[in-house]
Amino acid sequence: MDAGLPRAGAPTVIVPGPTDSLLDVAGLKVGHWQRLDSEVTVGTHEVPGTGAATGCTVVLADPSAVASVDVRGGGPGTRETDLLEPGHSVQRVDAILLTGGSAYGLAAADGVMSYLEKSGKGIPMGAPGAVVPIVPGAVIFDLPVGQWSVRPTADSGWTAAATASSNDSARGSVGAGTAARAGALKGGLGSASVRITDGPAAGVTVAALMVANPVGSVFDSATGLPWGLDAARAEELGLSSPSQSDLAAARALVDKGTVLNTTIGVVATDAPLSKAACRRVAVAGHDGLGRAVRPAHSPLDGDTIFALSTGTADVSEALRDRPSIPAFATELPILAGVCEAAAVVVERAIVDAILSATPVAGIPTYRDVFPSVFGR
């Protein structure tokens, strides 16, 4: 007997969320800070580029959200990820920081903490106003784009947190995606959401916000379409196959050649999940990353996905209809659907980042290289 658990091979039915973004998960806000000068070039540490291009993005959970993380890349730059291990004491976070600036950019988390402390958000420590906000974070390596010495600071993090809202679904070359590159193309920030319409997780929303800055390729050199974009999804987005001339130009592009890269992001759901379950959601999110970036999780990437559960969805009816589920497994039927959807939204969010990117420092965008794809 299966104890009422989902059967393998029965795919979860999903539809896009109202805004197709992380903001479809109630209780979350997103804010950005970026600096992008008019004259920006790509340089190295020895020969810096001109102008400045970098940024950071903050996901605020109000109230705090249950959270975990899964780090898969060989060169991560992170903060407070050990705290998110399922066996460790702290269960909830107040915000997640995604930032450019490599390890220097982690300083932006200090500003997010200061903003939250001023707002009275964090773990209460007894005395009035004595709180410790929990702000894990991860970085991408974008320093060669523009001035090496310009990266997010504590003030940047404060600004991103203070301007966070529940209705700004900006994407592309914004926030932490401002100076991102994706293989030979301009990377960026993308988002996607789905609503599960069948099974035990019916009514649950799952969404992702991803910053695509991988060393791997984000499009299939044989077809020209982004990895993870099947024919049905391409049709849904109004995209067609590229011309042969566009394909030839794309194959001639030179990869970026940097040694540190990274795709980072947040998967969130309104399903009520435990910290251990959030860890499984983060793990599943990496399946979507592997579909959209090839290769993924390389020694040169610091691929990191955080998972959040706001718990705002009411799943009591779904559980009431499945009385044979043992007590230890009450969240498993819901978790199975959320994990399946997590891979989908991460995949779609990375594609969204690539399709939404705008030119920075002469790095070609997907739209620049494949104009015929958008010819309908």
Task: Describe the fold and architecture.
Helix content is 23%, strand content 22%. By secondary structure, it is α+β, with helices and mostly antiparallel strands. The strands form three sheets. Strands 1, 2, 3, 4, 5, 8, 11, 12, 13 and 14 form a ten-stranded mixed beta sheet that branches. A two-stranded antiparallel ribbon has the order 6-7. The longest helix is centred in the last third of the chain and has 25 residues, at 332-356. It is globular and about 60 Å long. The termini are far apart. Residues 1-8 have low confidence and may be disordered.
What's the arrangement of secondary structure elements?
Layout: E1 14-16, E2 28-36, E3 53-71, E4 78-79, E5 92-99, H1 108-118, E6 123-124, E7 131-132, E8 137-139, H2 154-162, E9 181-182, E10 185-186, E11 188-196, E12 205-212, H3 231-237, H4 244-251, E13 264-269, H5 275-292, E14 304-309, H6 316-320, H7 332-356, H8 366-369
Parallel strand pairs: 5-8, 13-14
Antiparallel strand pairs: 1-11, 2-3, 3-5, 3-14, 4-8, 6-7, 9-10, 11-12, 12-13
